[in-house]
C-alpha cells in the first residue's frame, strides 16, 4: 500500500489466532429513512481486539448493537462464530449468549447485590445451580479485583467498581465475544484506569473484543486494529500506530485533533 492510500478494508484480520469470529458483510441499517450504517464490511478474528472510534452519531453503537442483535440490520449479513443472524427467536437467544455487551451506563440492578447481579442470568437462563453460579461469580470478582464487594449493592460502590461488576456479570455468561460501548465515558477520571486495566486483562486472556472507546492510550496498548467511522461508514482502518503517526483522511485527522 502506498502511504497516500487510505485503507478502508476492515476485513483483514491482524491479530489473535487469524480465524474469523465475526463477519459483517455489505451491511446496511436504516432508522426509517435515515441511513445509519452504509455498506459495512468488517471481520474480527478470534482473540482479536478491535477499537472503534469516530464522532458522536457516526454509527458506532448501532454497529455493535447490530452484532448482538439489539438492533436488526436491514441488508447484508452478520455472522458470529459461524451463526448467521436471522429473525429466528432461538437464533437471537443464541447470539445474545455468545456476545456479551458492556454499556456506558452499567445497567446493574440496584435492588440486587453484586453476587445476585452476576448470578441472575447464569441461574435463570443457563440453569446453573446456585452453588456453582456463586463459585463462578466469586472467581470473576477475583478476576476484576473486587472480591470483597460481593455482598454490596451497586449504590454502595464507585462507578469504576460498578463497571467492573458489569464486566464480571457479562463474563459469567461465558461469551465468545465482548462488545464494549464507551465503557469509561460515564466514569470520573480517576476510575477510568481501573476499568481499562480490567479490559486489558481480558484481552490478554484471549477474549475477542470490539471496543467503542476514545481512550487512545488503551488503543495503543491493546488494540490490534483501529476502525474510524464517520457518517455511518468505515472511513479508515489501521494499526493504532497508523492513527497516531500517519492518519490519511481529513475527517480522521480532524477527529483525532479533537480527542488527542
Ligand atoms: P454513535 O454511537 O457513533 O454516537 P449511534 O450509532 O448511536 O452513533 O447513532 C448513529 C445515528 O443513528 C445517529 O444519527 C442517531 O441519531 C441515529 N439513531 C440511533 N439509534 C436510533 C433510533 N433508535 N432511532 C432513530 N435514529 C437512531
Ligand atoms: Mg454510541
From TrEMBL:
Highest taxon in the source lineage: Bacteria
EC number: 7.4.2.1
Start and end residues of each ABC transporter domain: 22-256
Gene3D superfamilies: P-loop containing nucleotide triphosphate hydrolases
Uppermost EC category: translocase
Pfam family, one: ABC_tran
Molecular function terms, GO-annotated: ATP binding; ATP hydrolysis activity; ATPase-coupled polar amino acid-transporter activity
Signal peptide from the UniProt entry: none
Keywords, comma-separated and alphabetical: ATP-binding, Nucleotide-binding, Transport
Catalytic activity line of the entry: a polar amino acid(out) + ATP + H2O = a polar amino acid(in) + ADP + phosphate + H(+)
Family from the record: Belongs to the ABC transporter superfamily.
Stated name of the protein: ABC-type polar-amino-acid transporter
Organism: Ilumatobacter fluminis
Lineage summary: Bacteria, Bacillati, Actinomycetota, Acidimicrobiia, Acidimicrobiales
Amino acid at each position: 500500500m502506498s502511504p497516500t492510500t487510505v485503507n478502508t478494508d476492515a476485513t483483514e484480520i491482524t491479530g489473535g489466532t487469524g480465524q474469523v469470529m465475526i463477519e459483517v458483510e455489505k451491511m446496511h441499517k436504516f432508522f426509517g429513512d435515515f441511513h445509519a450504517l452504509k455498506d459495512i464490511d468488517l471481520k474480527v478474528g478470534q482473540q482479536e481486539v478491535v477499537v472503534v472510534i469516530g464522532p458522536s452519531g457516526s454509527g458506532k453503537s448501532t454497529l455493535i448493537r447490530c452484532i448482538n442483535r439489539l438492533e436488526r440490520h436491514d441488508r447484508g449479513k452478520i455472522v458470529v462464530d459461524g451463526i448467521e443472524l436471522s429473525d429466528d427467536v432461538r437464533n437471537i437467544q443464541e447470539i445474545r449468549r455468545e456476545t456479551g455487551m458492556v454499556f456506558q451506563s452499567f445497567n446493574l440492578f440496584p435492588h440486587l447485590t453484586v453476587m445476585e447481579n452476576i448470578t441472575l442470568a447464569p441461574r435463570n437462563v443457563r440453569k446453573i445451580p446456585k452453588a456453582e453460579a456463586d463459585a463462578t461469580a466469586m472467581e470473576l470478582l477475583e478476576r476484576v479485583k473486587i472480591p470483597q464487594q460481593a455482598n454490596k449493592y451497586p449504590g454502595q460502590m464507585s462507578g469504576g467498581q460498578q463497571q467492573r461488576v458489569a464486566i464480571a456479570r457479562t463474563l459469567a455468561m461465558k461469551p465468545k465475544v465482548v462488545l464494549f460501548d464507551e465503557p469509561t465515558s460515564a466514569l470520573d477520571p480517576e476510575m477510568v484506569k481501573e476499568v481499562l486495566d480490567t479490559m486489558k486483562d481480558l484481552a490478554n486472556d484471549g477474549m475477542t473484543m470490539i471496543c467503542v472507546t476514545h481512550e487512545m492510550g488503551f488503543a495503543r496498548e491493546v488494540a490490534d486494529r483501529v476502525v474510524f467511522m464517520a457518517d455511518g461508514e468505515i472511513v479508515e482502518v489501521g494499526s493504532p500506530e497508523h492513527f497516531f503517526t500517519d492518519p490519511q483522511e481529513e475527517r480522521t485527522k480532524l477527529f483525532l485533533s479533537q480527542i488527542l
